[in-house]
Amino acid sequence: MKDIIINNEIQDLIQELDVPDSKYEQATKRYNSIANYIKNSELNSNRPDIYLQGSFKLGTAVRPLTDDGGYDIDIVCNFTALRRENQSQFSLKYDLGEVVKSYAKAQSMSNDPEESKRCWTLKYVDESNFHIDILPSVPLNEKDDGFIAITDKTHDAYFEIISNWETSNPKGYATWFRDISRFSIYQTEVAKRFHASIEKVPEYKVRTPLQRIVQLLKRHAEVCFEEDFEHKPSSIIITTLAAKQYQSASTSHSDFMDIINYIIEHLKDSIEFRDGKPCVYNPVNKAEVLSNKWDKDSSYFEAFEKWLEQLKLDFNVGNNNLSYLDKINCIRKSLFKKIGDQFPVVNVNSISHHQNSKWRELLIKDVSIKASYLHKGFRWKDIKSGTILNKHGSLKFEVQASGLQDYDIWWQVTNTGREAELANSLRGDFYGSELVEGRRVRKESTLYTGRHYVEAYLVKNGVCYGKSNPFEIIITDKFSIDFAR
C-alpha cells in the first residue's frame, strides 16, 4: 500500500469538519462517568463491559452541521454474566433504564432519559449538546468473541424469554475498520511525533486517510438531506461501503483525491443482494443487515442512489476539465451551508479550453444572467446558478442590465466533463443571441452530464463594457435531484 498524499487545500477543508479535541475530552469524561456509575450500581454483579462504538470509536465523527447541533456518542453496556435464557429483552432493558434514570437524577440533568428502539439516551443541555446512546446487551456466545445479543422493543417476542435476539459485533467492526485504515501504523507515527508511547497518545489524535474520507462523505450526506433527515444514508452504510473500496483504491493510487474519487465511483460495487433486493451486511456479522430500511421501503435505497449521483457531481468524479483548486471549491460548497458570498465562483479562466475575451475591456456595466429551464413539456421554470438539472431539457438565458439596446450581446459557453469531451463538445468560445419574443436570448440544451458555464458580454464598437459572472449549470442523467442547498 502506497504512502498517501493529502494536499494542504484538502487537509484544511477536512480540519474544518473535525470535532475539536476539547469535545473529545468532554465526551470521554461523560462516557467514563456513566460507565463508572453503572459499574458501581446494583447491576455490577452482572459484570457490565462498557465500551464505545460508532463514530467516536471509529474516529469518523464530524462537527454538527449547525451551531445548535449535537454530538452523538454511542456506547454498549454488555452484561457478561447474563445470557439470553436468563431474562427477556424487556427486563434487561428495563433494569438498565432504572440505573440510567437514577444517574440522570443524581447529575441533576434537565432531561429524563429517553427510550428508543434499542437504546437509552441521555441528553445534555449545554453548549455541546451531547447525546449518549446506551445499548443494553448480553454475550451471544460463551466465548468472548465480541458478538452480542441486543434488545429491540419492536421485536414480536420482546417480553418473552427467547433465544432469537438481534445480534451485533461492535468490537469486531471497529477492529475490521481500523485494520483496513492501517490505524496502528498511523498511531505509531503520531506517537513518534509526540515522542510518546502509543498507549499515551489519545486515539482521537490519530486520523487516517480512510477516516478522513468517511468524514467527507458523511458531511456531504448531512448537507444533502438537511431537509429530509429520515432518508439520509446511514453513517454505518457509508462507512462500510467506503472501507470496502479503500483497500483497492489505496493500492492503485497515492493521491488522496484520486482515492476518494475511486471510492465514490465504485461505492455501489460492494452492495450485495438478498432476495433480489440491495443489501449491506455487517462485514463481521453476516446475520446483521445494516440496510434494513432498504427492505421495508424502496424510497430509502432510491435516496441513497440520489445522494451518490449528487456526490459524483459535487466531487467532479471523471471531470478532468476543472483545475484542482476549482474542484476543492466545488467540494467545499457541497459541505457547508452557503452564507452570502462565502464561496467564490469557479475560476473558468483556469479551464484550458475556455477562450480569452476577444474584446478590449472597459467594465463599467453591471451584468447578470437570468436563466430558465424546460423539461418534458412542462412550463419554463426560473433557475439559479448551480441548480441541478436533468439531461434532455431546454435552457434559455437572458441578460439583466440597463441600456441593453445600446450593446451587442455575446455569450460564452464552456462545457466540462467526460461526456462533453468524448463528444468533442467542450466548446469555450463565443456565440451570438437570437431574438425570442422581442428579447435577445441564448438557447441551449442539457446534453452532457457535468458542470457547464455560461457568461454574457455587452459589446459596442469592439469594446466590452460589462460581463457577467459565470452562470453554472449542473446536469445529471438519472433522475431529478432536488436536495436543499
UniProtKB/TrEMBL annotation:
Domain of life of the organism encoding this protein: Bacteria
Keyword Transferase: yes
GO MF terms held by the record: nucleotidyltransferase activity
Domain Adenylyl/Guanylyl and SMODS C-terminal sensor: 351-475
GO biological process, one term: defense response to virus
SUPFAM superfamilies to which the protein is assigned, alphabetical: Nucleotidyltransferase
Keywords: Antiviral defense, Transferase
Keyword Hydrolase: no
Record's protein name: Nucleotidyltransferase
Organism of this sequence: Streptococcus chenjunshii
